[in-house]
Amino acid sequence: MSKHVVLPDEREAKLKQIAAKHEITVAEAVGLLIEWAVEHEKVEPGIPGIEIRRDTNNVVIDFGVFRRTYSLEVAKAFSVALRWYARPKGTQFSDILDALSGSEIVGLSRRGTSVKVAGPNGAERTLAPSVARELATLIERSTAQLSL
Question: Taxonomically, which superkingdom (predicted)?
């Protein structure tokens, strides 16, 4: 669900400059700032409302309204597919995503410029591209954790 944020005019202008320079939306420019903050340890990694945890040989992703459990191999593939779907439609892979990704198996599709994740119960969660990329990173970290 989108929210409105009130900014000083000068900050809005700067966000628009960042977005124009990188050929992205203002929302994606905010995503870049959040990615930077996580990368530089200014904020903890994580996505509010989504919990990712390693359960022995599985990765469990709790989206709040549904939960997906994947084997480590499928979780890795899911993270790759998330990154593919988070790319702009005009990229070279956009025409072959559905054919090669197995997206219907893991419940991925596009919703406009965003990524839709469908749960086994029919519930859905729509992710902005920057959120989908962050989720992919968190899943990759979870699959890399050593079993205790």
Answer: Bacteria
Grouping H, G, I as helix, E, B as strand and the rest as coil, residue 115 is: strand
The answer to whether 131 and 47 have CB atoms below 8 angstroms apart is yes
Non-local (6+) Cβ contacts of 74 within 8 A are 106
Residue 137: name the closest of 70, 59, 98, 82 by CA: 82
Domain definitions of the chain by residue range? 9-39, 51-144
Distances (CA, A) of 28 to 10, 22, 51, 99: 18, 9, 22, 27
Q: Would you write out the chain's pLDDT as a tens digit for each of its 148 residues?
A: 577 889 999 999 999 999 999 888 898 889 889 989 999 999 999 999 999 999 889 999 999 999 999 999 999 989 988 988 888 766 555 555 555 555 666 788 888 888 999 998 889 999 999 999 999 999 999 998 654 4
Q: Is 109 left (phi over 0), alpha (psi -120 to 50) or beta?
A: beta
Phi first, then psi: give them for residue 53, nearest 5 degrees.
-145, 150
Q: What is the CA radius of gyration of the chain?
A: 16
In the DSSP assignment, the letter for residue 112 is T
